[in-house]
Amino acid sequence: MTAPVHTALAGIVLAAVFLVAMGAVMLWMFRVPRPVSLDVAKARRSLDLARVILVPTTGTGYSQRGVELACRLAQEQRAEILLAYVIEVPRTLQLGAPLPPAEQQAERALDTARQIVLLHNLPVHTLIQRARQAGDGIIAAAKDHHADLIVMGIAGNHHGHTFGSTAEALLHRAPCEVIFDKLPS
């Protein structure tokens, strides 16, 4: 007679555990999020739209910081990071002219930036773009690769100007949202 009592008791305990677990799941599923205004909801969702984040890099400390910032912005939505190095080709040369020192510097800068992105386990692609001016190259890369956001680290002092010519070009002509990370002087 004790075996059926133990079996019945075990059944009752299992049923109670099941009911508690199902109750917890139902509470979690039907919880109502804290109400927020439409403006707050739009601001929260606006970064979720960034699928491709373009990060121009030069290999400097401030541009590497821009890579890190882009990675942190990309993590929640698993956005792709596109690292771009723009080789500024003098007007006296053809755009395709070989420039070995600049090409080696580009590879080093992109390799360092790629390592930063890989620490975050994000998809990463690299690009060496040639242009007469860096701003034009970044804008072309953003258009060609359908970037949703450009994140760029910039130096603190531009001889009395707020931004350098590259940042100014992006401010006025970028085809997408731009975020600048400026270190203090």
Tell me what portion of residues adopts beta-strand conformation.
15-25%
Radius of gyration from the alpha-carbon trace, in angstroms: 26 Å
Under the CATH scheme, which architecture of the largest domain would be assigned?
A: 3-Layer(aba) Sandwich
At the first level of CATH, what is the class of the largest domain? Alpha Beta
Task: Show unreliable segments.
Answer: none
Tally of separate domains:
2
Q: Name the overall outline.
A: elongated
- Total helices: the number is 6
Strand order of the largest sheet: 3-2-1-4-5
The number of distinct β-strands equals 5
How would you sum up this structure in a few lines?
The chain is of the alpha/beta class and 185 residues long. It has helices at 2-29, 38-46, 61-74, 100-119, 134-144, 165-173, and strands spanning 52-56, 80-88, 124-131, 149-154, 177-182. The model has no long low-confidence stretch (mean pLDDT 89).
Task: Characterize the structure shown.
This protein has 185 residues and is an alpha/beta fold. Helices cover 49% and strands 18% of the residues. The protein is built from six helices and five strands, in the order H-H-E-H-E-H-E-H-E-H-E. Strands 3-2-1-4-5 form a five-stranded parallel beta sheet, with helices on both faces. Strand 1, helix 3 and strand 2 form a beta-alpha-beta unit. The longest helix has 28 residues, at 2-29. The chain is elongated, with a radius of gyration of 26 Å. The model has no long low-confidence stretch (mean pLDDT 89).
